[in-house]
Amino acid sequence: MPDFTIETTYHLPVFRHRTYAAATLEAACRAAVEDDNWDLAEKDYDSSGEVHITCVWEGAHSAYTGPSVQVPSQFDEAVQRRARHFEILLGLLKIFFDDAHAAQPPSLDWLARSAWEIARGEAILGNAPDPDKPVEPPKANHVLARLQEEQVRNAIAAVLEVDDNFRALSPTAVTDDDIHTACLTIATTMDVSGCFRQCRIPGSACGDPRSASSAPD
């Protein structure tokens, strides 16, 4: 069987106790961080980090001389693995937040990437290897109607101008809570069966919502 030279590593915390005089706690902490005098340092063996693999070479006794091979992801240091993944997930969250703010659906490419990163995150939490196959992205959503509360406020003034029934009501009298309650009422009581009856698949007429087509979100 083949030989591998493996470099294993663990981090050993070093600490010190020193007193700092400062105007604020933040200033004292900053002084402690910037202090480069470690003459009184002690090692904290009880808090040493996990053993992880930092490098692998093919062959016996071949450290830094033989060809190196990629370390299997599950043997990376877990805290670093999570930190790198956090940056990726934060980037994806920003993309989806911008899409939501612009009221536009995310692209299928980003959905597929997110599905893979979710599977990767679960693998990291389970100390398992990264998934090596594309993960099936979630199916597209189809929205028959969208009611956005932030758009209701903009429409209130126009409605009050043309509807005599609300002439005595001013736009400022309608609170955000009123809008939220009204939107919830509409969302829970609206009859969308007529929308299903109007849906058509090319080449056929269908009133069955299970076979209806609609514009993708």
The total of beta strands comes to 5
Structural class, judged by helices and strands?
mainly alpha
How much is the radius of gyration in Å? 30 Å
**Proportion of β residues?**
5-15%
Please provide the ordered H/E string of secondary-structure elements.
EEHEEEHHHHH
Looking across the biggest beta sheet, what order are the strands in? 1-4-5
Q: How much helicity do the residues have?
A: 25-40%
Our count of domains comes out at 3
The number of helical elements comes to 6
What general outline do the C-alpha atoms trace? elongated
Q: Termini, distance in Å?
A: 55 Å
Q: How does this structure look, described?
A:
The chain is mainly α. The protein has six helices and five strands; from the N terminus they run ββαβββααααα. Helices cover 40% and strands 9% of the residues. The protein has a three-stranded antiparallel beta sheet, with no helix packed on it. A two-stranded antiparallel sheet has the order 2-3. The radius of gyration is 30 Å and the shape is elongated.
Write the layout of secondary structure elements.
Blueprint: E1 4-9, E2 14-15, H1 25-34, E3 42-43, E4 52-58, E5 68-69, H2 78-101, H3 108-125, H4 149-162, H5 176-189, H6 193-198
Helix pairs in contact: 2-3
Salient structural properties:
9% strand; two-stranded antiparallel ribbon; three-stranded antiparallel beta sheet; 217 residues; mainly alpha; elongated; 6 helices; 3 domains; single chain; disordered C terminus
